[in-house]
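# nightly structure sweep
# worker-07 picked up a monomer target from the shared queue
# config: single-sequence mode, recycle default, output format = structure tokens
# input follows
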Amino acid sequence: MRIGRAAGILLHPTSLPGRFGIGDLGPAANDFVEWLSDAHQSLWQILPLGPTSYGNSPYASLSAFAGNTFLISPKKLVDDGLLDKNELDDAPEFPLDKVDYGKVFDWKTRLYAKAYRGYRSRDQSKLQSEFEEFCSEKGSWLDDYALFLALKQTQGGRPWFEWPIKFKLRDERTISIAVAQLAPIIDEQKFYQFLFFRQWNALKTYANERGLKIIGDIPIFVALDSADVWSRPEQFKLNGDGSPKVVAGVPPDFFSKTGQLWGNPIYDWQAMQRDGFGWWIARFRHALKLTDIVRVDHFRGFAAAWEVPGKDKTAEHGEWVKVPGHALFSEVERRFGKLPVVAEDLGVMTPEVETLRDSFDFPGMRILEYAFSGDAKNRDLPHNYVPNTAAYVGTHDNDTAVGWWNSIGENEREYCLKYIAAADAEINWQLIRLLYSSVADVAIVQMQDVLGLGSDARMNTPATENGNWEWRLTEGSLTDVAAARLKELSLIYGRV
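# output follows
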């Protein structure tokens, strides 16, 4: 499905400004929508919205369906009558330019518990009716997820595959007893999900009413320690004890002699196909309600996946195993019509992957920061773009434009300057202009590049464990001057 000529900004909600330790779905999010509208942007791209675990990566979520409750706005809880305004006064002195996840966890966990007690102790008949409707509508995943979190609490936060066998393998009688005994905790976790989706839906409506579409993100794989794998083991290639037979990764290449071992469990695609891809249908239905357009991460994996034996310590001894991606997307398209999907097709793509992408008319991706290290045939150079493309200066996995510019070699820098026919002053804006002027239907820029920030504002450095997913905007960063410059480029290059 063609998106049409448009421009947008990549910024995850955790990076929004505010005094509560992490960006949230409250007033700052509405302010950002207004700023995007003033800048004549029509797309807001975010990262996955799921609950994060160790490492804080939105690509390693505890659920493919649940929301990250740390994004719940405390101010909106006050507006809903769940908290008194003075209950926000004990917020710690959080850093304003990055997320301290440990500090956020401690304070927001206590705050949300107060909000839940407020809900239980006050007359909240309207909210209660909405909550009950939510639980009924989302029960297909919500019941398992809330129980999963409740059991995690009783097991000291350990991953499900380290639980006693009766919990790990979901002994029917044991689970039935647990549901009864843990009912208060289960209800509380469901309520937090209700609050998240209530606030998210309000924000999405606010954005849509102002002409903005939201691009979401579906990671192809799910985390081993997730409610999805624990509650639906038959959908994955697992051993009888719940351990993975095979895990995901990529093979050895120029960058790594041992490949990359991601560790995600691999889907049992044959079992999924036999039941009509029911889990994937539910996932796409959910994603298409949550956002307007879906970026599908690691699209290459829908043609074939690199399967590594579950006990291996490196990805060297895996093998490519074909995946019925065409059958999957055909079924999803039969259910929902032409899909508003962007295929993340970065890296070395095979003809099979390109055929799969093109047969459904999905736009692929191009990255300017990859464009200048080769020759004129480089696919990431704008003169090699095709219109049905989503083009970026860089993504969340890349350095900022300024950081990239400061780190590249002299030859790459010289080629870039010749290509853009300009000096290196404000290289971030030179690259944004180049992107906007291309034939690519979609042009997306990281917020950090609009602001001209360096490597210390980078969102993620792949293959590193610390310091990722922490960057935040500071108050006052969203200036009228920056909005006016984006507006001018959108008008010049027909991206309004």
